Amino acid sequence: MSQVNFKTTLNGKNIEVVGGWDRPLQGYHFTIYDLDAEEEEEILYCNLDDRKLVGYMGFTQTNEHYRAICQLMGIELPEHFWDACDMKAGNLQLYWNPLTQQYEGR
After folding, report:
1. What are the residue ranges spanned by the domains of the chain?
2. CA distances from 98 to 5, 74, 101, 104 (A)
3. What one-character DSSP code corresponds to residue 89?
4. pLDDT tens figures, 65-78
5. What region, left, alpha or beta, does residue 11 occupy, with left being phi > 0 and alpha being psi -120 to 50 degrees?
């Protein structure tokens, strides 16, 4: 499974958007976390909980659905986030480094 992480803000809250490709299930995954939540981890959106994706086991074949979710929520993600998700690489974890303006693997 590839995982691409991008931190940004939404309505003054720090959030982290995580997306990527799940090779065994052959679909994209997508989760949005509230990093300022008092709980250990508050999820604002998760593909596995999306009722529109029930017939697809929670996964999609493209990122268009997740782009629409971001638009509805008012989250602007740079095109390089989506490009990195589209790599469909297995066992790859990328984090956006705002200092270098590049993704770095971990």
Report:
1. 2-105
2. 12, 21, 5, 10
3. -
4. 999 999 999 999 99
5. left
List the single range of 16-20, 30-34, 79-83, 84-88 with lowest mean pLDDT: 84-88
Strand 2-10 to strand 13-22: parallel, antiparallel, or no bridges (unpaired)? antiparallel
d(CA 1, CA 30): 12
Give the per-residue pLDDT at 36. Answer: 92
Mean predicted confidence (pLDDT) in 19-36: 92
Region 45-56: mean pLDDT is 91
Q: Which helix (H) or strand (E) holds 29?
A: strand 27-34
